[in-house]
Amino acid sequence: MPTRMPIPRTSHRGTTARRRRRLIAPVVAALTAATLAACGSGDAGVSAEDAQSQATDLVKLLNIKDGTDLGGKVEFKLGAALTLSGPSASNGASMKNAIELATKQIKAAGGPTITLSVKDIKGPDPVAAKQAASELASERVPAKITSMGDGLGAMLADTDKNKILSLDGVGGAQVFTKGTQYFYGTREVAPSDAVPGALEWFKRANPKGRTVGLVGVDLGPLNAAIQADMKAKIEAAGLTFNGLWETVSPSSQDYASMISKVKKNEPDLLWVAFGGAAPGAFVAQAKSAGIGSELLGIEFTQEAVKASKGVLDKDGFKFAMDYFDAAKPSNPLAKLFAEAYEKAYGEPADFYAANAYEETLMVWDLVRRVVAAGGDPSDSTQLKAALEKDPKFASVYGGDGGTVGTLQIDLATHGVAKRPMGVFEYKDGKVKPLATYDVKGQDFRLAD
Amino acid sequence: MHDLLDAELWQLTANGLVRGAFYAALGAGLALVIGVTTRFHFAYALTYTVAPYIAFWVMDALGVPFWPSALIGLGAAVVVSVLLEAGVYEPVARRAADRAMLAVLVTSIGVSTAGIALLQLKFGTSSLPFYGPDQVRHDIGPVRISNFEIDQVATCLVLVAGLAAFLAFTPIGRSIKAVRSNPGLASVLGISVRRVNLVCFAIAGLISGACALWYGLLYTVQPTMGDTTVIYGFVVAFLAGTRSSPLRALPVGIGLGLLEQWASIWLSLQWTQTAVFTVLAGYLAFLAVRGRLPRIRSVSLRRA
Amino acid sequence: MWINYLDQALLLAALAVSVNLLVGYAGQVSVAHAAFAGVGGYAVCFLAGVHGWPYLASLVVAVLVATAFGVLIGLIALGLAQEFLILMTLAFSLGIIGVFATFDSLGGVMGLTGVDGLRLFGFELDGPSDWLIPSALVLVLVFAVCHRLGESPYGRVLKGIREDTVATRALGKNTFGRKVGIFAITSGLSGLVGGVYSGWLGQATPSAFGFPLAMAVFAMVIVGGNANLVGSIVAGVVLTMIEPVLREVLGVQSTQAALWQVVLYGALLVLVMIVRPQGLFPERSKRVAAPGTARSDVSPRSPSGGVAYADAEVVLRADGLSKRFGGITAAKDIALELRRGTITALVGPNGAGKTTAFNLLTGTVVPDTGSVRLNGAELVGMRPDLIVRAGLVRTFQDVRLLDRLTCLENVMLAVPDQPGERLGRLFVPGRGVSRADRAVAAQAMEWLDFVGMADHAGTPADALSYGQSKLVSLARALATRADVLLLDEPASGVDATWVETMLSMVAAVRDEGRTVCLVEHNLDVVRELSDHTYFMELGEITASGTLAELTGSARLAEAYFGAQ
């Protein structure tokens, strides 16, 4: 690192030596910081050999018939709109990892050369999301892996206008994404889809529990629709919504006022509808304030564990979602993915990564189908038609020791027709299922 | 229902007092800087954020125990604060001469956001797992309060009272007051304005760092933690007066804390922060009107 | 993609230009203009996006609403000290964005998104390239308005406010009104830019108009250069392009590019402030071609020819002026007369209240009781600038020239009734304003010539010697064409050679038929000039007469003159 650098001479009279000394401080500080930051960004990833060996297994697991055109001649441009900075930065990072892993495996398997164009939607910040949408449009990507209900709605208009087939494994097909033709949610709609099964679990685990309330992030005008949906599902389960519905802007993690409101009207079951690190911070503060409700999160990440300052490890944290457990993969594809991911990035895959991985495989599947039909895989209308023709894809969720799971899109809702999920509990670094079920609470089963 | 509401009121009051002491200390530190050095010290947010970040880094990367790390974090806040004055504000103000206020404000905002961006480049954009000793909860009547909150209040009160005593009873404190009331005269009397400024920035760094460390223990440590905090600091500093005793920050800070907490009884949560800005705007509007009142009155007298 | 960034760059440059008019020209620091842009943006998205209004109509409403907010905030904040203005605008911007984020009808924290298919003059604005023309037009429009305002007599008043509000007001300019006016105009322009910005984005969200935008615009103004609009455009485009260039050209990861952009903003600001505080493109001093010294119709009037003091008409009469500050009596029952074509002196020891008396007469300080009549009209209760217009002007003990303006501009500023200072006239087509400004320059040159400073017309005021600056300040006072001149220590601190010049100047002013009152310590000056002298001590006038009479009094001689 240079210790001296030329300082521009100023045209002003007076002593420059003194000023020069003054200047060195900020310049050196900036350079130091630059060096620090540059050191920080090492590039991990899957090695070529690993990708090659994984690819062979992948082709087998996906049950691709011999002689199928894998799309090896296709140059495919895949977009990605991820939250790479801001409070949800780690979600975006693991999704990016998973997509890169998948594209390398696909290439090694003899599939298309996928060039990835990743855009940061920051947060999601609507401005960044919009910018990402128009950049992806100008790059003419036929499909993208997207997130957060397409940037909490900010990208949806462009998604349809530019006909970009968009797969969202973070927000799923939320209420406000309805009607966007090219948008599909590939996971449960959190928390809506998970609610019926979770309430069933709650009734069995707490036979005396009656009332349900919710705290969460403020989604502005969308709150009303979500609230109506939740209320209907709570009543359908024979429980009572106690009127507690408190939302705050996602920027703050100081929940003192919110907790006072909860204390005033304490429900038996409190949905903690925050994402990322926030559930950890909220649960820690709620426990500290003596909230006695059963707390139930809508997602779980290591970020939340960090933000809870040990409370989640000590007191445990229950959540209802389609959780991906990298330690206990449920099918061979999941196992292949979990192991490959851990090997490439040195950390277990979370559900964001898992969802992005299966979405990338889904894009490859669509490309193969279009190629097989003699079409042009860079035409998103053909990709969409292929999807509509048979909305079933390989999944890292569900299945069993010998069978790869199935991801089935509901063509009416653009969400998932089926999705294995459950109520889970995190404690002392381990996640265990308490109950498993599917969309609408079907196939409900208490874990043993 | 009645006693439930009462319990809530007590809890909110306790929360408000805890928060208020915190705002008061922050405001007193900022008022000192603004009153004495006339620097619009926006980078207070930076020194605030730096303390828990450095403390975390020392703990995480070097494996130092919590309390020594916290002290190092505190030291880092002081160092950053002093360096800002010596390396940025002072040269900028000297170059800008009569337009120093704008120049310093602008550089201060710039340095602050740039510094926080650097922290994000190094530590990431999400929150840090900033752990400390165990939190112990006490129930006092209807109020539940943690040992951190009690310690935080104590720290803030000690800081404010200590600052007041420092200004009143030590030679350097008296120099600070002399510079505050008339910098030109003070320098004629042989007081080094530069040194006084540096001392003020050291104190402000100390206060912001101490407040941030407690906040970090109670809540979360994240890059944006200084954003609204510094605004509260400005609000308290100006409402309490930048040229008066730091003790005046106490009623103002506590008033704001209570206002913010009590507001949540009647207002939806989204409104409570806006309520504070409304009060500030109202107060400034009152000042503006009062500033012109004498003229209005004398006109009417003449006509009578 | 680059076209999209170009749209953004043009719009941010337009915002920077309007903020520069306020910050660079008028010297009023507002953090709130990003929020005013937000007001405009929300108005457009609410009306055009949600309620289907035509885009143009919603833009008009955006401008009006933003202007209204500007007037409101300006009225509240601009009467306060500068630090309160900053604080107030800060509180406002956070408050208003907070309020927007609270209403569900405005989309709450998510804002109004998905505004699409806007049309302007029959053209559908769809992709980035469609927005290029509207963005460029807005920039051109904002630049044209700001340039017209900034580089006109109106802008000269703004610069005067920036340099020294009190001195500018003492030349008969309604500084508070101007401040509110320019605050409102720039708010309206920000609203317009915000409306187009939101249209381009297809959304109005709290984060889009939050503090980072205010910060970016500030960086553009400061880096580009205060009071240099071209600089703002260049800096606006360059700074906006940092992020995409880092990302696309230098291959920095997108997560880091945004952060590095902020770091570079900060580093640039600090570097610029330390190395080149005037910005990359410094303010240009207007080069007014010095008109020839040919006498025109405004030449100084012919000498009135020695009127006896006793016979002279009373022009200004003050009665019973009193003022208390807290417990201290600064002025007590002051009564005095100034007579046409004569010179009256106000003498007394330091702290006797002579300058306070001037402040009371000119309305700078409002008396508790008493009256001041100028040609029979009551002055107490009038705004200071109107008192000047009524014909009573003062100079300052500490001169208070406007440092960064040239001598000629200093004097031009004082000329009353300039059409170019009125907004309405500035936007009327034709050369009327510039013709009038040439006449003003000619007048100002005459006054400079009158005090013997014509050679220094193009010199910035801060480059003058003390004596020279006193002469220019006299020329400035004369240029207001006020009948009565209050000169605060015109000869003090001036070296001997200048005293003579000054004396002859003041005498010449009197001979012109104007009325002069001066505060002076130099008794030789008083003896030479004054027809009548008031003696003040402890805030009261305790004696009056000719200087000879006063120096003859044993008591006064001891109280004051004895010390000499």
Describe this structure as you would to a colleague:
Chain A is of the alpha/beta class and 448 residues long. Chain A is built from 15 helices and 16 strands. Chain A has two domains: 227 residues, 3-Layer(aba) Sandwich (Rossmann fold); 155 residues, Rossmann fold (3-Layer(aba) Sandwich), CATH 3.40.50.2300. Helices cover 42% and strands 21% of the residues of chain A. Chain B has a single domain, classed as ABC transporter involved in vitamin B12 uptake, BtuC (Orthogonal Bundle), CATH 1.10.3470. Chain B is 81% helix and 3% strand. A two-stranded antiparallel ribbon of chain B has the order 1-2. With 564 residues, chain C is α/β, with parallel strands linked by helices. Chain C is 54% helix and 12% strand. Chain C contains 21 helices and twelve strands. Chain C has a six-stranded mixed β-sheet, sandwiched between helices. Chain C has a four-stranded antiparallel β-sheet with strand order 4-3-6-7, covered by helices on one side. In chain C, strand 3 and strand 4 form a beta hairpin. In chain C, helix 14 packs parallel to helix 17. Chains in contact: A-B, A-C, B-C. At the B-C interface, helix 3, helix 4, helix 9 and helix 11 of B face helix 3, helix 4, helix 9 and helix 11 of C.
The unreliable regions of chain B are: 293-304
Structural class of chain C: alpha/beta
* Strand residue content of chain C: 5-15%
Determine the CATH topology of chain B.
ABC transporter involved in vitamin B12 uptake, BtuC
Task: State the assembly state of the protein chains.
Answer: heterotrimer
Largest interface: B-C, 52 and 55 residues
Order of helices and strands of chain B: HHHHEEHHHHHHH
Low-pLDDT residue spans of chain C: 293-304
CATH architecture of chain B: Orthogonal Bundle
- Number of strand segments of chain C: 12
The CATH class of chain B turns out to be Mainly Alpha
Distance between the termini of chain C: 79 Å
Radius of gyration of chain C: 28 Å
Secondary structure layout:
The complex is a heterotrimer of chains A (448), B (304) and C (564).
Chain A: H1 16-40, H2 48-61, E1 75-82, H3 89-108, E2 113-120, H4 126-138, E3 143-146, H5 148-152, H6 156-161, E4 165-168, E5 183-185, H7 195-205, E6 211-217, H8 222-236, E7 240-248, H9 256-264, E8 269-273, H10 278-288, E9 294-297, H11 302-307, H12 311-315, E10 317-321, H13 332-345, H14 351-372, H15 380-389, E11 392-400, E12 403-409, E13 416-418, E14 421-427, E15 430-437, E16 445-446
Parallel strand pairs in A: 1-2, 1-3, 3-4, 4-5, 6-7, 6-8, 8-9, 9-10
Antiparallel strand pairs in A: 10-14, 11-12, 12-13, 14-15, 15-16
Helix pairs in contact in A: 2-3, 2-13, 3-14, 14-15
Chain B: H1 2-37, H2 44-62, H3 66-96, H4 100-123, E1 137-140, E2 143-146, H5 147-169, H6 171-181, H7 183-188, H8 193-218, H9 225-240, H10 249-266, H11 269-303
Antiparallel strand pairs in B: 1-2
Helix pairs in contact in B: 1-5, 1-8, 1-9, 1-10, 2-3, 2-4, 2-8, 2-9, 3-4, 3-8, 5-6, 5-8, 6-8, 9-10, 10-11
Chain C: H1 2-25, H2 33-50, H3 55-77, H4 82-100, E1 118-120, E2 123-125, H5 128-150, H6 153-163, H7 165-169, H8 175-201, H9 211-224, H10 229-249, H11 254-275, E3 314-325, E4 328-339, E5 343-347, H12 354-361, E6 369-374, E7 377-378, H13 384-390, E8 392-394, H14 407-414, H15 423-426, H16 432-450, H17 466-479, E9 484-488, H18 496-511, E10 515-519, H19 523-529, E11 532-537, E12 540-545, H20 547-552, H21 554-559
Parallel strand pairs in C: 5-10, 5-11, 8-9, 9-10
Antiparallel strand pairs in C: 1-2, 3-4, 3-6, 6-7, 11-12
Helix pairs in contact in C: 1-5, 1-8, 1-9, 1-10, 2-3, 2-4, 2-8, 3-8, 5-8, 9-10, 9-11, 10-11, 14-16, 14-17, 16-17, 17-18
